[in-house]
Amino acid sequence: MTSLDRIYAKNLTPLQARHYGRLCEMNGNYYGAQLYADVAEALEAAQRIRAIMQLQGYICPTCGNTGRLDDIPCFHCAA
Predict the structure, then answer these.
(1) Torsions phi, psi of 58, nearest 5?
(2) Whole-angstrom Cα distance, residue 45 to residue 69?
(3) pLDDT bucket at 15, cuts 50 / 70 / 90
(4) pLDDT tens-digit readout, 21-55
(5) pTM for this one?
(6) What residue spans of 1-79 are helical by DSSP H?
(7) d(CA 43, CA 26)
């Protein structure tokens, strides 16, 4: 499992990812700080895309906008 996989497994919000990035930077872990900053940017972009899709009336072909397939989060639209 890579560092990026571990970060995504935590299911952080962009704000939490930026906070962890600041903590890494304060402790001298500049690689981790940059990684958390990049993850926060990616999460924010995904949130913006999902918001635009909902405003345009997009219906997810995978889950029908429920956000889940049985007990699994939808890979198209779930956060």
Answers:
(1) -65, 135
(2) 23
(3) very high
(4) 999 999 999 999 999 999 999 989 988 887 887 78
(5) 0.70
(6) 3-9, 14-26, 30-55
(7) 22
* Residue in 56, 58, 15 with CA at minimum distance from that of residue 37: 15
Token match 């699994």: residue? 72
Find out whether 12 and 20 touch, Cβ atoms under 8 Å. yes
**Backbone φ, ψ for residue 72 (5° rounding):** -110, 130
SS3 (DSSP) at 69: strand
Q: How far apart are CA 36 and CA 45, in angstroms?
A: 14
Q: Measuring CA to CA, how many Å separate 22 from each of 2, 16, 18, 28, 68?
A: 20, 10, 6, 10, 32
